[in-house]
Amino acid sequence: MIRNYADFRDELLQCGFSMGGGNAKGIFALIPYDWTEQEMIDTPVKWHCGDPEVDPWEWRMRVLEEQDDVAYAKVFFKTSGFITREWYPLFYAVRRQGETFEEAYEKGQASHMAKRIYTLVAGGEIALHEMKRRGSFGKADKEAFDRAMIELQMGMFITMTGRKQKRNQFGLEYGWNSTVFCTVEDFWQQRGLELPDLPAEECYERIREQVLRLNPAAEEKVIRKFIMGK
User: Fold this and answer.
1) Pick from 37, 36, 127, 25: which is nearest to 81 by CA?
2) Domain residues for 72?
């Protein structure tokens, strides 16, 4: 049983990937229960308690800030998940099929809103609140903006890289932390990994085999959506 962050980190590195958010979605989650269910389970792990040792909500940022071998973003079923350094190149090969964002956009596989966002992220790490300000995204853009952010993460074009405190005009910190994003290539390059060009079909099969090791009951149609992202 996972009882703290160290247990979670070690198990994740063994498994290679996991759903986040406390729902296995028919695939696999290291923490398979959310805050509404935790009182029924005998565990020291407590969602949203604020203790970085036992709060899975805190772990999503700890892996980004303390590890160089784990990525976290909205990569599975349009919701959160973890992928380790060992397995990320395989998902990358399947999702990207060797294409750059520009090539995907030219083929009509990416939205115009996604292009506006990607252009900002490709310029270097950028916090979400700064992205909205620099891109002049307003309330009227919220729905399309949120869809495009998920689109870019699911396509493995951008990923989360940490968090940044907001500051007012006087340089004083305020409010909630803001998530920071960068391109997936920059994320892994900063961690010493150049994403290789791997055969997508072979990568698909390797991921599928690992899913079935983690969850022998996983259905093929669910596995396919998990791996392909669609």
Assistant:
1) 25
2) 1-96+197-230
